[in-house]
Write a structure and sequence with these properties.
By secondary structure, this protein is mostly helical. The protein has one domain (3-150). It has helices at 3-20, 34-42, 49-66, 73-101, 103-112, 118-134, 145-150; strands at 22-26, 30-33, 114-115. Strand 1 and strand 2 (30-33) form a beta hairpin. Helix 1 packs antiparallel against helix 6 (118-134) and helix 4 runs antiparallel to helix 6.
């Protein structure tokens, strides 16, 4: 297994793990992962959709790695990054809305929310997938027929 394949598997594992790690700390409720956060923000009909899409992209990344076509990891890495950016911006905009509408009370509530370390693991997963996609794939070795016949 080549270095780019190992990196691809590590990146996919980081994405899968990152979905279940805390991304936001909310007063009274506690820390929430990406799937829990989306479920509470968008309602039960959308429970965990973004998290499961990222898991699906990570599984596709694993398949791509096992097929040794790591140049296609760009698609899964950028797809995961896009979902992460949308979620991060949505969270920040909701916090800004709470802060702007509630006066001092709203500002206090918005200040009590904090981003957690799950974002770092997700970002590392995307970065590692991009690095794996940039690595040149190992050439497939073709054994000459004479060598096979002599063995």
């Amino acid at each position: 297994m080549g270095k780019n394949q190992q990196l691809g598997l590590i990146g996919a594992a980081l994405l899968i793990a990152g979905v279940f790690l805390p991304v936001v700390s909310v007063p009274i409720i506690g820390s929430m992962s990406l799937t829990e956060l989306v479920a509470r923000t968008l309602g039960k009909a959308y429970k965990g959709v973004d998290g499961y899409i990222i898991i699906g992209l990570a599984v596709v990344s694993i398949i791509i790695v096992l097929l040794n076509t790591t140049k296609w990891l760009w698609l899964t890495a950028l797809g995961s990054l896009g979902i992460m950016i949308v979620d991060f911006v949505n969270i920040k905009s909701k916090l800004a809305g709470i802060s702007g509408r509630g006066g001092r009370f709203g500002e206090a509530i918005a200040a009590s929310f904090s981003m957690q370390w799950g974002w770092v693991v997700l970002a590392l997963g995307v970065i590692v997938l991009i690095i794996a996609a940039m690595q040149k794939a190992l050439p497939k070795t073709i054994v000459p027929a004479e060598q096979v016949a002599n063995e």
